[in-house]
Amino acid sequence: MSRSSSRAVRIARYYFFRTRRLSRRQLGTLQDWKMRLVFWTGAILVGVVVQCFAWAADWSAHLFTRMHAYSEYLPIVVTPLAMMAIVWLMHRFSPASRGSGIPQVLLVLKQRYHWLRPTFLTLRLVAAKFVLTCFGLMAGASIGREGPSVHMGAALMHRAGQIGRLQQKYVDNALIVAGGAAGVSAAFNAPLAGIVFAIEELSGSFEQRTSGTLIMAIILSGVVVLALAGHYSFFGQPSTQLVLTESWPEILFTALLCGVLGGLFSRTLISGTAWLAPTVRRSPYRFALFCGLVVALIGLLSGGTTYGSGYEHARSLLAQDVVGDWFFPLTKMLATLVSYFSGIPGGLFSPSLAAGAGVGAAVGHAMSEPSVVGLTVVGMAAFLAAVIQRPITSFVIVFELTGNHHELLLSLMVGALLASGVSKLFQPVPIYDGLALALASGKVEPAPALNTVDADADGHKSLP
């Protein structure tokens, strides 16, 4: 072989092995692909389950609407009995399915409470959350399905990790974060909101915040919902124009008012849950019966507008089919508080969006603002931000749910940031963090596992 041909062979061999090494590094190891497969499969499963949950919840709400249309007095009997039955079923089959579910997810993400994952992240809990939340909407309780969707998504992804035998702690945490965020994405058909929710509410490390695998899982769940339900905006696409430089007094007033009301709402919910805990422990079924009666009476006084998630009334306000007043947002807040105090599974997102829409519409009519719809949208973002104290998540959710009106983006940002800041004056700790702390300290009715001393994976005692 000539010297030139031998040199060509050496060069070819060098580039062959170099390209092979680069390909391995770029494509990743078998373990990397196993992790991606678990994330993606789990995300698709979350998308399917949450979309089925959305269909079932809508059907349940429709059944209650038909019952209420038949007789507005029927809920006085049905709602209390149904809420008592929900609490009995919850205590019988899955006590950990209580409430929103987001506090439970935040709790198990903490290193100290990893040992609670077998209690708070089970397939039984997913089934209970699915059925009992739909049952609550069928009873007319003022609850949403988005918080339960977060809990269900986290539990499903955690289970997918167990099946895939992904045991690393950072992977396990990332699965829970991805599942919860995918639940938001699928519940609202808003992938961007799911990503922001993962960053702002659930994530606790730089690796989780920057994980491309996590983001792909969130997007995949949204794609599944898109394939099953088609492209839609949760609240439609309201026609509106709201210029910040022209309507800034109305926008600032709406944000300030939502901040005050949202902060008081959060403080009342956290402190009220802890204060009522002894009563709930002594007589859970009687208390649920009483809460159901109060919810039914509020619904009777409001003409039925406070029942359910509030989605229909908020959509009517955005379409200007009804005139905004101060009675609806105040009674909706009260009905949501009572529904949560009862202990039944259900979330706060949709009721908060509906109450915020009511505040914005009322301010718009009171101040003769030409764009009442614009202020209604700002009120939704501002009140949600005041309740959960996650302003970026709030304005991104409302931005996506109302058809991506770019001309409203700056007004939504200002409203959400200002309302969140004002809310902290009344409730310094964000609502889900406060509820998680109360759950960990035993100030609210705990799941059975919280009644015993146990140790986490590192051997540290977690609770007294």
Instruction: Tell me the number of helical segments per DSSP (H or I, 4 or more residues long).
Output: 20
Q: Based on DSSP secondary structure assignment, what is the total number of beta strands?
A: 0
Order of helices and strands: HHHHHHHHHHHHHHHHHHHH
By CATH reckoning, the class of the largest domain would read: Mainly Alpha
Compute the average pLDDT.
Answer: 80
Q: Report how far apart the termini are.
A: 80 Å
Query: What is the CATH homology-level superfamily of the largest domain?
Result: Clc chloride channel
Fraction of residues in helices? over 70%
Radius of gyration: 24 Å
The profile of the biggest β sheet is: none
The assigned CATH architecture of the largest domain is Orthogonal Bundle
User: Based on the structure, what is the oligomeric state of the protein chains?
Assistant: single chain
How would the global form be characterised?
Answer: globular
Structural class: mainly alpha
Strand content is under 5%
- The domain count comes to 2
Low-confidence stretches: 205-211, 447-464
Secondary-structure map with pairings?
Elements: H1 3-27, H2 30-70, H3 74-93, H4 102-108, H5 117-120, H6 123-139, H7 146-163, H8 169-188, H9 191-202, H10 206-209, H11 212-229, H12 244-282, H13 284-301, H14 311-318, H15 327-341, H16 349-366, H17 372-388, H18 391-401, H19 409-426, H20 431-441
Can you describe this structure?
The chain is mainly α. It has two domains: 30-229, Clc chloride channel; 244-441, Clc chloride channel (Orthogonal Bundle), CATH 1.10.3080. Helix content is 73%, strand content 0%. The protein has 20 helices and no strands. The protein has helices spanning 3-27, 30-70, 74-93, 102-108, 117-120, 123-139, 146-163, 169-188, 191-202, 206-209, 212-229, 244-282, 284-301, 311-318, 327-341, 349-366, 372-388, 391-401, 409-426, 431-441. α2 (30-70) crosses α11, α9 packs antiparallel against α18 (391-401) and α14 packs parallel to α16. It is globular. The chain starts with a helix and ends in a 23-residue tail after the last helix.
